[in-house]
Amino acid sequence: MKKYIMVIDEGTTGVRTMIFDRALNLKAKAYETLNLMYPHPEFVEQSPVEVYERTVSTIKKAVLAGGIDPKEIECIGISTQRVTWVPWRRSDGEPLMNMATWMDRRGIPRYKELKADKEFERRFPEMYNSIQPQHISCGLGWQMWQDENLHKMMNAGELMFGTVDTWIVYKLTRGKVFASNASNAGTTRLINNRTLNWNTEVIKYLGFTPDIFAEVKNEADDYGMLDKNILGVEIPITGVVADQQSALFAQACLTPWTVKSTNGTGSFVTFNLGDKNVEGKGPYASIVGWKLPDQVRFMAEGFLPTAGSALEWLKNEAHLIDEFGELHGIIHSVPNSGGVFFSPALNGFRAPLNDATAKAGFLGISGGVKKAHLVRSVVEAIAFANAHIIEDVGKWFQVAKPETVKISGGVAQENLLGQLIANVVGTKVEKPVSLEASAIGAAEFAGIYAGIYTLQDIPRLLTVEKIYEPDANAQKDVETYEKWKKVIERTTKWEF
User: Fold this and answer.
1) What rounded mean pLDDT belongs to the chain?
2) What's the order of all strands across the beta sheet hosting 287-292?
């Protein structure tokens, strides 16, 4: 009897394969790190070959670790980082460059051109208002004009292009399926939110040919069969979804203005906008949450590129912590950050400040400051950044603060994060038992197509571990937060 769902969770710093039973209890997992490369100050790359090979490796390791018969795996779901992209050759499937990750900013020159383009602003106002250097419109556009070979191959019909989900599906099916999904396609900003397909008008305006882009499917759909050579048996791939959209779904944020915050490498605060394509406001575009035969959801999102990656920096570069296991003890060895504020702009700021030139830094250091104050200020900054986005979205969309904020991701293991968000936003914060929300969502989408679950099952599959309510420190934390907002503005516009 088939009784398992396999999930491939392809993140920025690593890929993991998890195997769940139908009740979404984790039965086996395997993880391998992915290398990030910085060949230029504005470039952040990954090897597409490494991504695929380590994906296959974790698939095999997870099956072995759990002692699971691959024949008992009913379906496969895939959750991926977004925006990360790679072109490859149509004739043999060979990648033509390293992947440009979502942190990559090679598109800054093209971004500046588009922001100065009045015709672009007139014809595509929502895209104009929300565009960032990291978007494919900028990154791929810049790369095309730098690499004459890519341009020639595109014009000759020999170029295939995809975000990381498209690449993984293409490789896992031995090139039989060339497909993306509404959530990943939507995040590129190259999709038409009315048709939920590629916006050929904007694609052509930007200088691309539509044939380089993959078919756009539902998140719960037929994505072909896993290559039999991997596990000795074909397994249907029935769910593919962008990681933050997947987390929103898994945390049962299914109705308008429900909110989740995923705090992994970055912090992603996402708001369900309902089934109507609500026009974006300010820096917050309306993007596709998910598309199913009986439900379409749009969402608005603000995010901080630096969350867990700031803690990685504390450990690997600043050497302020030796192991992540000691983080809790360090930050709770002091009652506050001692007047120190951290600007978490290691990769610039997105919403609300939207400044790619911003730089990170500690401010307010005096002779009495200890290591613990610096470390605590980093965790505080991640929580404050969450609150900042929630506050700003509320102003732009004229909505009240949410009744509940649902948090997940590795950084959410530290209770200070949830408590500070509750105190500063003034609302309840829920942390689920499983912090792997993006993986759970992928399992649910795969299971929906496979007939294991229905939409009505999703809320009951969520189990809450801890609820944070505003406590006695709330007013003091609000005051610190207001000071932090003023401090971080000093680290913006970092150009001389």
Assistant:
1) 94
2) 287-292, 295-304, 267-274, 259-263, 404-408, 428-432, 464-468
